[in-house]
Amino acid sequence: MQVPLQITFHELAHSDALENHIREKAHKLEQFYSSLIGCKVVVDQPGGHQHKGKPFNIRIDLTVPGGEIVIDRQQDEDVYVALRDAFDAAKRKLDDFGRKQRLDIKSHDPVLNGTIARLVPEEGYGFIAGLNGQEYYFSAANLAHGGLEQVKEGDEVHFLEDAGGDGLQARRVTLK
Asked: Are 76 and 85 in contact (CB under 8 A)?
């Protein structure tokens, strides 16, 4: 980290063991996401006058290239459980942020258009003539709504392209 780790205890006594635990967790975050610029952790135990257990509130502010990630959780009565959950959430947020930075976002296959060119109902398959001039094989199982009796030659359809062992195939075939 370019900025040193900052740890603050609010409404509870300082603990060397707890501080060391937080340092280890922050170090693991830095190993997970090497571009981490800074990390601030606040451990708070509000409501000191409650009769039952007092939950710990953990706030983690992470400075990353181009932004900040904030985790603010009121967690468990056990400070170590609260820290574990907060740092797990921070790791998930860093993972999401890193994926967006790398443009590692799921892309969907393009939906193609075509017409039913011919059907072989006794064999359970047919062919689609794509607008690109290609011909695509499809089986009755690839029809989204019903079997081959639901379509006829000349029907316009939407489909997804799939490469099969014997050539181009259509999957998720739906009527327009």
From this structure: yes
